[in-house]
Amino acid sequence: xxxxxxxxxxxxxxxxxxxxxxxxxxxxxxxxxxxxxxxxxxxxxxxxxxxxxxxxxxxxxxxxxxxxxxxxxxxxxxxxxxxxxxxxxxxxxxxxxxxxxxxxxxxxxxxxxxxxxxxxxxxxxxxxxxxxxxxxxxxxxxxxxxxxxxxxxxxxxxxxxxxxxxxxxxxxxxxxxxxxxxxxxxxxxxxxxxxxxxxxxxxxxxxxxxxxxxxxxxxxxxxxxxxxxxxxxxxxxxxxxxxxxxxxxxxxx
Length: 253
Description:
- Residues 1-32 are annotated as: Disordered.
- Belongs to the GPATCH11 family.
- The chain is of the alpha+beta class.
- The chain has a domain at 101-145 and 202-247.
- It has six helices and six strands; from the N terminus they run αααββββαββαα.
- It has a four-stranded antiparallel sheet with strand order 2-1-3-4, with no helix packed on it. A two-stranded antiparallel ribbon has the order 5-6.
- A hairpin with a 5-residue loop joins strand 1 (158-161) and strand 2.
- Helix 3 (80-143) runs parallel beside helix 4.
- The radius of gyration is 46 Å and the shape is rod-shaped.
- The two termini are 84 Å apart.
- The model has no long low-confidence stretch (mean pLDDT 79).
């Protein structure tokens, strides 16, 4: 109990000292004090700042208020508070750097995901455009009484087992029927084995698409993205936005 009362009295004493100190520092130096008298002998007047003056009317640009007093109430050494402050700043800085790295990693992962997604979408678009081009290529070529395609893969081929008259477009993966199959075009002419476009890299798919769409434009004045056959090449050049999907998509936007 005695220790508790002693601590309470000590705290009250510190509070009273702090109050008196703040009151004293908040008041200007009284003109009756010896300090003011000494400063007055050196030319100091109320409202003037410390430091050299240009003339007697110059109030100066130095400090006008006493320096603040910071009373140290702990047993830590001088500069300890500054050290703690520096450590706190370092911790905050390290945390900010860590958050920045995490944000950068998140951006990288997001961008990588978007690239993969764009790549998947691009592959699907390429294959879809190639298949659409082949379909219209067969139709337009047969209209001109062509018996075989300009390039073998321009036309879709169908397989037929040697012991049946039924045609199909593919063979079951579990069946080893390569020796029993023959491939034919839609007009009955013998054809090479149908190609798997989903197994080709994007670079090859882009070359294939450019090849067949270029053929459709040159041979039939047809654009798969416009979806029509033009009357002549002048009309094709005038009304078709371009020779790829991007050119047509930009018109839609």
